Amino acid sequence: MLSSAAGPLISAGTDRCIRLWEPLRPEQSYIICGTSPAQAIYRKRLFQGVPVIDEVPCVAEQEGPQPDAPTRRMAAVRGMSLCHQDAITALHEVGGGERLLVSAARDGVVSVWR
User: Fold this and answer.
1) Which helix (H) or strand (E) is 105 found in, with range?
2) pLDDT by residue (tens digit) across 17-66?
């Protein structure tokens, strides 16, 4: 997991998904790449008094809030061959002129994301 003092959290793992979590605005969280549901919504709730953000898959019959623009935009990337095909084992943010995200998977594939 990557985090910054005032920004989003980025996580990845055995489900082969890279997620961007916006703790202060959970509705703006989205899946960067992976094999998770085609669309999801994110909401904040309390669990035993602790605020948590839930990822809730959208299904055709589900009513309620629709995914926001970043979620819909990133839906086009999910499931494509650009995404990792095995567990993601490392994340690293590269600064400089342009912020890049580097991810590595158990199968030896390293990807660079803008």
Assistant:
1) strand 100-105
2) 999 998 888 888 888 888 655 578 888 999 999 999 998 887 654 455 55
6 Cα distance to chain centroid:
17
The upper half-sphere exposure of residue 16, i.e. CA atoms within 13 Å in the direction of its Cβ, equals 16
- DSSP-derived secondary structure letter, 23: S
For the whole model, what pTM was predicted?
0.72
The H helix count followed by the E strand count for the chain is: 1, 8
3-state secondary structure of 114: coil
- Which has the closest alpha carbon to 75: 32, 44, 109, 45? 32
CA angle 32, 104, 78 (to 5 degrees): 25
CA distance 40 to 55: 6
